[in-house]
Specification:
about 110 residues; 5-stranded mixed β-sheet; globular
């Protein structure tokens, strides 16, 4: 169910780590764990419709999404490292999800 919810949300806009974590928390009766988040990320990335990466404002009217390269486990590990390295409120935006077709570019391009 969480996967379907996230897929619906990502059709409209990018989804932050914070929003993903909130969905996982609601689905697991407020017992969110990093293992639960990792499992959801793995399922989302494995389906091939979603990319994970960073988003940054390039202009006032444009946010660029840069998808991470690597295997699914590598990208999930990168996401969890980004969350661990982020400070307080920045954790919510440690990584973003978007539809594969909406990714502006991949890391290193």
């Amino acid at each position: 169910m969480v996967i379907d919810d996230i897929l619906e949300m990502v059709k409209d806009d990018m989804v932050s780590h914070g929003l993903l974590a909130q969905c996982v928390e609601q689905a697991t009766s407020n017992h969110q764990t990093s293992a639960s988040i990792e499992k959801v990320l793995e399922e989302l990335l494995t389906c091939g419709k979603v990319e994970i990466g960073t988003a940054k404002a390039v202009r006032d009217d444009f946010v660029e999404f840069v998808a991470w390269k690597g295997s699914v486990p590598e990208r999930v590990t990168n996401a969890m490292r980004a969350v661990a390295a982020a400070q307080c409120a920045d954790k919510e935006f440690a990584y973003w999800l978007c539809l594969r077709e909406n990714a502006d570019r991949f890391d290193g391009e």
